[in-house]
């Protein structure tokens, strides 16, 4: 079992920055990859960014490229999502998730943190 807790969301203005954090506890040694997803009101959840736990290889959705940066601190079992130049369309609940193998799906999810960007 892996438990994930997100934090760092809030209400900001367009153009501002936020850094989200996701702390993992439990069987963290078995994590293969961590991802950030978001779900806007009335929309399906969508992928934002991911990072491999061991080699830190990253991958971004087109909407995140150039503005979002995912990173991790293995000593703290924490994954971050630095979000710059925020836009109103970035408003969503942001979730982190853990993938436990290279061929698996995201098995564990956090409770989410709300990000609201005003224009």
Topology readout:
Elements lengths: L1 E6 L2 E4 L4 E9 L6 E7 L6 E7 L5 E3 L7 E6 L4 E6 L8 E8 L6 E4 L3 E6 L1
Parallel strand pairs: 2-11
Antiparallel strand pairs: 1-3, 3-8, 4-5, 4-9, 5-6, 7-8, 9-10, 9-11
Describe the structure.
This protein has 119 residues and is mainly beta. The protein is 0% helix and 55% strand. The protein is built from no helices and 11 strands. The radius of gyration is 13 Å and the shape is globular.
Order of helix and strand elements from N to C terminus: EEEEEEEEEEE
Number of helices: 0
Q: Span between N and C termini?
A: 40 Å
Given helix and strand content, the structural type is mainly beta
Regions with little confidence, pLDDT below 50 for 5+ residues: none
Please count the beta strands (DSSP E, at least 2 residues each): 11
The rounded Rg comes to 13 Å
| Morphology call | globular
Report on the biggest sheet: 7 strands, mixed
Which whole number gives the mean pLDDT? 96
Approximate helicity band: under 10%
**Beta strand %:** over 45%
Descriptive labels:
119 residues, mainly beta, seven-stranded mixed β-sheet, four-stranded antiparallel β-sheet, 11 strands, 0% helix, 55% strand, globular
Write a brief caption for the model.
With 119 residues, the protein is an all-beta fold.
């Amino acid at each position: 079992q892996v438990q994930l807790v997100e934090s760092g969301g809030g209400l900001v203005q367009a153009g501002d920055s936020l850094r989200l954090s996701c702390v993992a506890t439990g069987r963290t040694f078995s994590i293969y990859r961590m991802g950030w997803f978001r779900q806007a009101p009335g929309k399906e959840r969508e992928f934002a960014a991911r990072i491999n736990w061991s080699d830190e290889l990253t991958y971004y959705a087109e909407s995140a490229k150039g503005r979002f940066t995912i990173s991790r601190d293995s000593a703290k079992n924490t994954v971050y999502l630095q979000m710059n130049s925020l836009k109103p369309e970035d408003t969503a609940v942001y979730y982190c998730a853990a993938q436990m193998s290279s061929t698996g799906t995201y098995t564990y999810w956090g409770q989410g943190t709300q990000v609201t960007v005003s224009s």
